[in-house]
Amino acid sequence: MKLAVTGKGGVGKTTVVAGLARVFAERGQKVLAIDADPASNLTLALGFPRDQRLTPISEMKELIEERTEAKSGTMGGFFKLNPRVDDLPEKYTLEKDGIRLMVMGTVQKGGGGCVCPENVMVKTLVAHLLLHRGEVVILDMEAGVEHLGRATASAVDKLIVVVEPGQRSLEVAQKIRQLAADIGLMSIGLVGNKIRREADRDFLLTHMAGLSFLGFLPYDQKVIEADLTGTPPYLNNQEFLRVMGEIVDKIGS
Fold this sequence. Notes:
single chain; 253 residues; alpha/beta; 8-stranded mixed beta sheet; 10 helices; globular
C-alpha cells in the first residue's frame, strides 16, 4: 500500500498520517512514514522523543554531492540524474512501535521543478520508496504533489486530500486535484477533519461532489491537546483510532 497525504496547511495532514501509520502497524504491517512537508512535525506525532531528530535528506549536502557527483546548492553543469538511493531507508530512519520514519525535506527554491542535485535526490528517493519498497509507505506532503512525477504517480494507491469546513481548504483541494490529474493520478480520496456538527459534514459533501470521502474525523479536544504538547494524536484516544481504522478499511476496499 502506497499512500500520499496532502492538503492545505493546518487542516491536520500530519494527524491523519500518524493515525494511518498507527492503524497499519497495529494490524501487523511494516510501515514507513515519510515526512515530506517542512511545515509538519511527524517525528513528535509518531511519539519519537524530542531529542531524536533526523536531518532532512534534502539538507545532507555531503551525501547529495557524493551520490550525484555535483556541488550541492548549484544549478547547471553535469551531475547524475539517477543517484543511488536504495540504501538510504535503512541508514537514515528512526523506528518505534513498528513504524519507521524518514524525513525527506524539500528544495527551498523558487521554481520547485528545478533540475538541481537536491531535487533530483529527493525525487529519485521518492520513486524508489513508491516503486520498489514492499511495506506500507505513507507520505506526508506539502499542499500539492511536488514530490511526485508521472513515473511515480502510477505507484500511489491513493492520494488522500485532507479538508476541513472552509472555502480556503476546498480551494486548495481542488487545485491539488488538478495537479494530480496533470500527472495521471486519478485515485483520490478525501478525509474530512475537524467536523463539529452535521452541517460541517454536509458542507464538505456538497462542495466536493464528485470525489469520494474516506471518512470524517470529529473536532476532538484530545487531538488538539496532543498537538499542543507534541504527543501522538492516538495516545489514549480509542475513538480516534476507531475512526482511522474505518478509513483504512475504506482505503483497502
